[in-house]
Amino acid sequence: MADDVTVAQMLDFHREFQSFLAAAPNWPSEIGSAVATALEGGGLAWPLAIALMVVVGVAGERLVCWKLNSLNRTIREQRAGEWRVVFGYAVFRVLFELAGVLLFAVFAWIALYFSVDSGTNLARTLEGLLVAIITFRGCAIVSRAILAPASEGIRPIALSNDDARAFHRWAVAFIAAYVFVVFMGETIVAAGMTPVLGRATAAFDGLLLVLILIVFVSSNRGRLARLFVSPRPAGEKPSTLGQIVSQSWVYMVIAWLAALWVNWGFGVFTNDLERVESTSISWWITLLFPAVDRLVNALLDKVASLKILSDTGFEARRERFVSLVQTCVRIILLVVALAALAVTWDIAGMDPLHTEWGQRIISAAVDIGLTVLV
């Protein structure tokens, strides 16, 4: 059964690829035509409409939030050491900045409403652009809250200032690229682009994002290694497996990213929505893994530092507790990511999570987690 499914999938891909080759000569002209169609509408010309929308949104936000901005700067300059205070400052800062984004959206939408005719292609395109800007700013706020590149005193995870700034710059660049390609892809497809060329455009947009991640991993190898490598006791030698992973993890990550794109692009190109959705689970786990891992580490460290635990002699087992729970969380995330990817190929002719070995893996992960916690 699995072989039949795989053959059918490959035939679908071959058929779509032949259609793509036939339509490919018209690809540039169709993109241009779709963009022109998306910008059709009455009112101000689209450059003026965009400029007015952004200027009014920013001006309205600054006018209303000038007091909040001064308070936000005060929070950013805090040098608090108590984790509860740090958490409180971080939450307040995120809320203040989200309030600013909300005000920007309201004023920008008002400007958009009065500058272009509603119901036109241009109005819908600029509404999509406004959503893209809001999404970018919201995600950048989350990145800034986690990495705190200019606020060491309220940084929730252990990072040097240089590493925090570098990671934040890359995060903002990736968010900008992601939001842009999603906005452009949805815009040109909605404007009437040939379906096979629209799907091909989406697949190549995904390739662009993967290439950005590969460049990030390759150029920040040392910084990423410092995130996950724990200090080793003096005189203790790393295991053979540890040495292999430390020397080859970059290539493993690149191969994993390439596999995700191939599988996701295959699903997009053949219009296999189930494959796309399942691969997206692995994709988001991969993207969020470093942040989740570090936040879990910080949380475990705070839990292990509670006075009620130190009074019970827990201090001697603290590092082992943190290490074991952290490893358990990593294994669970890895298993879920691999299972989501495996599901797309119908291994053994069925959903791997419902096979005997799939259930055993899940049961083992749960047992490990309960054992560690107890």
Give a summary of the structure in a few sentences.
With 374 residues, the protein is an all-alpha fold. The chain is built from 13 helices and no strands.
Give your account of this protein's structure.
By secondary structure, the chain is mainly α. It has 13 helices and no strands. The chain is flat, with a radius of gyration of 25 Å. The model has no long low-confidence stretch (mean pLDDT 81).
Could you list some keywords that capture this structure?
mainly alpha; 374 residues; 13 helices
Cα-to-Cα separation, first versus last residue = 43 Å
Strand content: under 5%
Number of E-type strands? 0
Q: What number is the mean pLDDT? A: 81
* Shape annotation: flat
Helix share of residues? Answer: over 70%
Element-level helix/strand string: HHHHHHHHHHHHH
Largest sheet: none
Helix/strand-derived category reads mainly alpha
Uncertain parts: none
SSE order and pairing:
Blueprint: H1 2-23, H2 27-38, H3 46-76, H4 83-115, H5 121-147, H6 161-190, H7 195-219, H8 221-228, H9 240-269, H10 273-304, H11 307-310, H12 318-343, H13 356-373
Helix pairs in contact: 2-6, 3-4, 4-5, 5-6, 6-7, 7-9, 9-10, 10-12, 12-13
